Amino acid sequence: MTSVVVLDYGSGNLRSAERAVARTGADVTVTSDLDAAAAADGLFVPGVGAYAACMAGIEQLGAGPVIAERVAAGKPVIGVCVGMQIFFDSGVEHGVETKGLGLLPGVVSKLDAARIPHMGWNTVEIPDNSEVFQGLPADVRFYFVHSYAARDLDLLKSAGATVTTASHDRPFAAAVELGSLTVAQFHPEKSADAGYAVLRNWVAGL
Amino acid sequence: MTVAVRVIPCLDVDAGRVVKGVNFVDLRDAGDPVELAAAYDAAGADELTFLDVTASSDARGTMLDVVRRTAESVFIPLTVGGGVRSPGDVDVLLRAGADKVGVNTAAIARPALISEIAERFGNQVLVLSLDVRRTAEQPGGRSAGQPGGRSAGQPSGWEVTTHGGRRSAGLDAIEWARTVAELGAGEILLNSMDADGTKAGFDLDLIRAVRAVVGIPVIASGGAGAVEHFPPAVAAGADAVLAASVFHFGDLSIGEVKDSLRAAGSPVR
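C-alpha cells for the assembled complex are given below, as produced in the milestone run.
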C-alpha cells in the first residue's frame, strides 16, 4: 500500500489533509517524525497563515534538509498553499523577506489585485504535460484562499517546471511540477471532487 | 476576475442539532448537521457555514464533535461562528477541522481580537460577521456617502447591532467595516437585519456602501427569497451570497441560484 506522511510542523489543517489523502486509498500518517517523512512513498507539506511562521516551524523541526534530500533523490513531495510558497527562494509579507527552502526559483509576493485575499473557486490553465491535472476538464475549479503567490512564471518555466496558472486580476502560479516536487497554491483537500482527482493522480504516481 | 461567486448555505446549530427547521429532501435525519452538510456539498454548495447558537458553554464540546465529523466527510471549506472570544477559541475550532472562523460580538467589545487572530492564524481564517440595520432617520434607498442620506443615528445611516439585531452596538456600520478590514479580517459576512427574514431581496445599498470602503471579500446575507435576488447582490459588489431558510425549506436550490447567477453573467462553479 502506498504510504504518505502529512508533515506536522505546527501549521495547516492536518486533519483535512489526512482525510483527503486517505480518500485516495493511500496509507496516511500525520507525524513530525523526520525518519518517517524521509521513508514514506510521498510527503505532504501543508501550511496556512504567515510565511515566516511556517518557515520557523520547518526550521524548528529541522525538516528542511529532509525535504531537500527527498526532492534531490527524486522522491515525491507535495506542498499546499503556504506549504507551496515555502519551496521558493523567499517570501515577502508586510515588507519582511523570509528565506524559503529554495527548491523553486523566485519570490512569493503579494497579489496585485483589487480584491485580497483571493478567496474562492477559480479556474486554472493546465499545460498539456501536467501529470497531476491529467483527466480534468478545462473548466475545472479549485478552492483558493491566499493573499500572496509566486508570480514570476517565466522564471519557473525557464527552470524547466510545468506551470499551471490561475488569474486573479493578474496571473500567478496555481501549481508547479518540477521533477519529484509538486506544489499547489489552491487547497486540493478542500476542492471537492476536483481536488480529490489531483490528489489521486499524485498518489497514483508514487 | 474569474473567481466564482460563492453560494453558501448557513446552518444554525444548537447543542449539535440543526435548528430553525430543515425540510431537505431525502435525509434520514434532517436535524443532523453532518448529514445536511454532506447533502449541501452534493448539491454544489461552495462553502458551508455553521453558526453555533448554543447558549451554554458546556455544549461547546458537542459543536466541536459536529465540526470534526463534518470535516471527516465533506471536502469543501467550513466556516464556524458563534461564541468565539479569543485566539484560543479559534485554535480549538481550526484543530477540529474548521477552515475559517466567524467572529462577531467579541470583536465589537474588543477590536484588538481581530488583529490577534489575524497575526496568529492569518487573515484568511477570520470572517468578521456584521449584523447591520438602518438607523431610524435614514429614508430607504439612499446609499452611504450621499449628502442627503445621513441621519442623526450614525453618519452613514447604518449601525452595528448585537443580540440578533435587537440591540445597538453604538457603532457606524460602514466605519466598523472599514476598521475590521484594516485590523486584518479576511472577509466580511454582511447581514442586513432589516432584510433578514423578509424574503424581499438583499439590502443592495448596504452592500454597495460596504463594498466602497473595503478591499476584502464581502458575503451578502439577509433577505434572499427568490433566485432573482442573487444577481443584484453580486452587481452591488458581493463576492459571495449566503442564505439559510430558503435553502433548508427547499424554496430554492443551490443549483437554481447558480443558474440565475450564470444567466446574469457571473462565473459560478
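Residues 52 and 129 of chain B are 13 Å apart (CA to CA). Chain B has one domain: 6-263. Further analysis is deferred to the final report.
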